[in-house]
Each structure stands twice: as structure tokens, then as C-alpha cells.
Amino acid sequence: MYPQIVKDYVETGKVRYVFRNFPLSFHNWAQKAAEAAECAGEQGQYWAMHEALFNGQDEWTGSDDAVTIFKGMAGTLKLDQAQFDGCLDGSKYAEKIQADVQEGSQAGITGTPAFLVNGISLSGAQAYDTFKETIEYALAGGEAPSLTVPADSYRSMGQADAPVVITEFSDFQ
Amino acid sequence: MHLKRTWLAALVALALVVAGCGPDMATPTPGGQATASTQAATPVATQGVQATDAPVASGELPVDPNDWRTLGSADAEVTLIEYSDFQ
Question: How many CA atoms lie within 13 Å of A85's alpha carbon, on the beta-carbon side?
């Protein structure tokens, strides 16, 4: 989460921020990492573990036993170790994470990170200014655009009378 | 290529703001994953149960007591949902 977004919009009550798990299948420890965060959450330390996992990526992503590292993080956060270990080893929150994935897939999410700002989709890592512009647009009452593809032009998308037209000049290489 | 996509994403966001209100505006192209992985997510096999109502404390920000992954006021005008993994 971008600290500046938290400062400018979440702490001021304008934005509610929601994190949803979307562990990608080719990220070998992503599922267990998500479970570790949830297991910390049940002890009131979700965001602390969230931060620890991101900050400690270099330590565990290439590890043969990231689970042990996650348990060590729980110890550092002074969680109830037995409770955390049992939660993680028992995959207590696997179903919850699966529900996140299904929810995201239904919303059209295919990669990470991905964001929905009042339904407006932002795919991939974004600059703060992009979030700011989109949030301000939503605060002004802007809504997520609906998509229609005119049958008369295979290279355009959107409504013929849309107030904004974006033209991209590009090549395919 | 990524640079182009990033510029396109920024341009789209800017266009949305300039356009102001109205739901009938042009839309960014789908599938425009600017810098994220373009590989599709595959749900991971799961088991176990879900607990949703544990008490939570996280700094000074209000947290939905039914979901410790939420920060901010429940009355906020805008909801920003991030889908991500930790790896």
C-alpha cells in the first residue's frame, strides 16, 4: 500500500482501502504467504505481517522452506507462536484466500497487482499520481466506464459519442 | 513496451479526470496490464475454514471488525480494492 495514499485519502476518511489475496500459481510461496498474513490477522497483526512479508521478500521468495521463515516473522511480531503455527500448518485460511481469487477473477482480474477504485480498473503497478487522479475522479462522482465495441470499426472501443477519445499510435514490436 | 503501456495507463487516468462526470465515457482497452505479470492466475487448491470476526487493531485507522484486511472509514466515498500476492 502506498503510504501517501494512506496519508492523503485513507486517514482523511475519503478512501476505504481493501486488500484481497490473489496468489499467482507460478509464485511458489504466494499462497502460504497469504495464509501467514491471515493467521497474523486473527491475532490482530495483519498489517504488521503484511509489511513484514513485503519487506522480507528477498529472504523468503527463493527459500526452500519459506514457511519456517514466516513462523520466524510471527515470532518477531510476538504472536502466539503455537496458534500461528497451527493456523499456518493447518491451512486455516486457504478457503478464504480461494474466495478472494474467485471474487477477483469474476471482477476481471488476471494479474497482480490490480486495483479497483469504485470499480474503475487499474492494472499493474501505478504511480501515485495515477491513483490520485482516479480517486479524485471517483470523489467527483465519476463512475467506471462501460465498454461497448462498435461493430463498424475493429480498431476502436467505446461509444461513438463518448466525450473523450484516446488514440494510440503504436507498433506491435 | 512496458514504458508505452505505462504511458497509456497514465494517459487514460488523466483523460478520465479531464472528462469529469458521466458514465458514458470512452473506456481504456481491456487487458492492458501495464507492468504486472500477464500470466493468468490459477486458483490454488484449498481446504480449511474461514474466520471473519476476530478483533483487530492496526494503528490509528479504523478497521472493519469483520475483515482485518480493510483500512479506513466504512463511510468513505471511495473504496480502493487491491488484488495482489506477496511474492
Answer: 9
Angstrom distances, CA of residue B30 to CA of A62, A94, A122, B26, B67: 33, 30, 10, 12, 30
Q: Work out the burial of residue A154: count CB atoms within 10 Å of its CB; fewer than 13 is exposed, 13-18 middle, 19 or more buried.
A: exposed
pLDDT 10s digits, A18-76: 999 999 999 999 999 999 999 999 999 999 999 999 999 999 999 999 999 999 999 99
Question: Does A139 reside within a domain?
Answer: no
Number of independent structural domains in chain A: 1
Laid out side by side, the sheet with B70-71 consists of A120-123, A114-117, B78-84, A15-21, B70-71
Q: Is A67 inside a domain boundary?
A: yes
Chain B touched by A171 (CB under 8 Å): no
B66 touches chain A (CB under 8 A): no
- Interface confidence, given as ipTM, is 0.82
Residues of A in contact with B31 (CB under 8 A): 110
- Full-model pTM: 0.68
Range of the domain at A82: 23-106
A139-160 pLDDT tens trace? 999 888 776 655 566 777 777 7
Best of A45, A46, A50, A159 to disrupt the B interface (most B CBs within 10 Å) is A46
In order of A50, A68, A86, A89, A152, the CA distances from A83 in angstroms are 18, 14, 5, 10, 61
| Residues sharing a CB contact under 8 Å with residue B3, sequence separation 6 or more, in sequence order | none
